[in-house]
Amino acid sequence: MKKILFTAMLAAASVLTAQTIKGSDTVLPFSQRAAEAFMKADKNAKVTVTGGGSGVGISALIDGTTDIAQSSRKIKFDERKKVEDKGGNVKEVVVAYDALAVIIHPNNKAEKLTREQLEGIFTGQIKNWSEVGGANLPIVAYSRETSSGTYEFFKEEVLNKKDYMSGILSMPATGAIVQSISQTPGAIGYIGLAYIDKRVKAVQISYDAGKTFVTPSIKTAKDETYPVVRPLIYYYDTNKESTVKSFIDFTFSDAGQKIVSDLGYITVK
Amino acid sequence: MKKIIEKAIEKIFAFSGMVTTVTILLIIAFLFKEGAGLFNSPVVEKGYVLCVNANNPVEHISSADIKKIFNSVIEDWSEVTSGFDEKIELFYDEKILNNYGKDEWRAKIGEKIASTPGIIALVHDYEKSLPKNFEGVKILEENTILPKDFFLGFEWLPTSKPAPQFGVMPLILGTLLVSFVAILLATPLGIGVAIYLSELAQSRVRDILKPTIELLAGIPSVVYGFFGLVVLVPIIQKTFNLNVGETALTGSIILAIMALPTIITVAEDAMRSTPRAMREASLALGATHWQTIYKVVIPYAASGISAAVVLGIGRAIGETMVALMVTGNAARLPKLFEPVRTIPATIAAELGEAPGGGVHYQALFVLGCALFLITMAISITAELISKRQHNKGL
């Protein structure tokens, strides 16, 4: 009898720690690595991680089909309201930060851009590098696809909610953006800091109309001098706090935050 | 006993044929059903309304103007409505919704609108926050998305807020351009190779060439796409001295390569099926080998050759991954040496995160319907042509 009870309790405990994480592909590598490490440390735990994009994760949270929604953007007001209408309460936990770098072809001499100039370039007002201190070369702007959280964040943050120019070149993946920019002399685009390699060059950005220009790096993002930084967030329903608590605590532990810096993201501490 | 089994097998075959047909019809029905709601949707994103100050004489704002206003392209009301000379001030209600309790929403939003003459406010459509019947506030009536704006529009900005722009003209033209050029490149080459393989090549050469060509059909399209992006894009850029290597032409070349195996295999099979008696009759009448090829073999195989070309077009027009990777995906009026965006690439890139049942989602399904109608029109035309040619040939 005792044995049966014990097994039942064990089963209950393992059910308690079984959880699903769904959402942003930017947060996905972190969640996956963290889940692996977490499951290694706790044999009863079971964490399932899937991608699909920030919006997909948050709608799964609304439908109750995931315990944690991983997102690279803030939850929208109406999304939060939908959860509340179902009797839930959304809790937001920032697990890491990601800096977005604006990249150009390595031979391009225009290395410093203000936010206003970036807005002009991506909305199509500025069309030649000579207008922003470069050579006489047409600007070719690359963007991510509309389904990407990065696309949305860049629009809200850097373009001041304005639309990208119609007919901007868009690429399905970060890798494709780096590849295209490395082989197009007049190109400009944006990617996560972790994806920068030797084939492209990061631009210094100014958010105070040209007084100070900051190079994107883990250090400048951490001391908050680099402006284009977004939080990587876990959203969950407080009703499920007991289920997700131990995993979320783990992401803040030293082991969890080490994964963050290993992946090229910025730690929260 | 044998008879019963044969009967059973016959029934199974008939049944699977029926199931296939029904499935195809269901898919088509699904396509049209999902897209159907688009033209009943308001131009402003679902869940929001636009409000202005009551003194503002404006009644309707077109979708294109809303977009220009929220992008600060139009900055004064006099550009939208006559007789109201006031600078436009944009207002979003998120801050109020986040910072105040729900009992204060309506009053706070209403007061803000009533006290700002030039305001245009994007307000969430909630009972508690919507300043309906609030003195000094006018809620704008909403137009629905017009088929004219959709099919003849030139701006594809599906996530523009608050009024997404669904002009599919650049996408349709882009798809047609890329496929048309691809088939223009692939057809002569494909038919040439088919003639060589079926009529001229020695059987040893043929035994090597044919499997190699058929192997081309087995390469996954993403591999073609990556090859195009890494190898062909820089070549095109340097050869034609362009700013960008991701162009319609780049896509066409890769698609032509992809369509080649289909065209070659089908056309060659058609040519080889020319009865031996006909060839021999032609040769016996004193025709040369070449004369036999294009006076007897090609006319006889005409329907098969057109089928090959149609299958090739089908392959090119619906190809997604290559278009997504090498054409640059820029939704503007297509030119051969500039980036274009095709319909399949658009659907593939955007459907993933378009909220189910939303306007964007419906717009993508209508695009799918358009693609379906285009391919159907092409196959029907080809069918008619091949029938006519066949009659003439014999």
Kindly describe this structure.
The complex is a heterodimer of chains A (269) and B (394). Chain A has 269 residues and is an alpha/beta fold. Chain A contains 10 helices and 11 strands. Chain B contains 14 helices and 6 strands. In chain B, the strands form 2 sheets. In chain B, strands 2-3-1-4 form a 4-stranded mixed sheet. In chain B, helix 7 crosses helix 9, helix 9 crosses helix 11 and helix 13 runs antiparallel to helix 14. At the A-B interface, helix 3, helix 4, strand 7 and helix 7 of A face helix 3, strand 5 and helix 8 of B.
Main sheet attributes: strand count, strand direction, barrel closure of chain B:
4 strands, mixed
Number of helices of chain B: 14
Shape of chain A: elongated
Strand order in the largest sheet of chain B: 2-3-1-4
Biggest chain pair interface: A-B, 37 and 44 residues
Q: State the CATH class of the largest domain in chain B.
A: Mainly Alpha
The domain tally of chain B reads 3
Secondary structure layout plus pairing:
The complex is a heterodimer of chains A (269) and B (394).
Chain A (H helix, E strand, L loop, with lengths): L1 H16 E6 L4 H14 L4 E5 L3 H10 L4 E4 L5 H9 L4 E15 L7 E3 H9 L16 E5 L4 H9 L11 E3 L2 H9 L4 E6 L8 E2 L1 E3 L11 H5 L6 E9 L3 H12 L1 H9 L7
Helix pairs in contact in A: 2-10, 3-4
Chain B lengths: L1 H35 L11 E6 L9 H8 L18 E4 L1 H6 L5 H11 L3 E6 L12 E3 L7 H6 L3 E2 L7 E2 L2 H32 L2 H15 L3 H19 L8 H25 L3 H9 L4 H30 L2 H6 L16 H9 L7 H35 L1
Parallel strand pairs in B: 2-3
Antiparallel strand pairs in B: 1-3, 1-4, 5-6
Keywords:
heterodimer, A: 269 residues, alpha/beta, 9-stranded mixed sheet, 10 helices, B: D-Maltodextrin-Binding Protein, domain 2, MetI-like fold, 6 strands, elongated
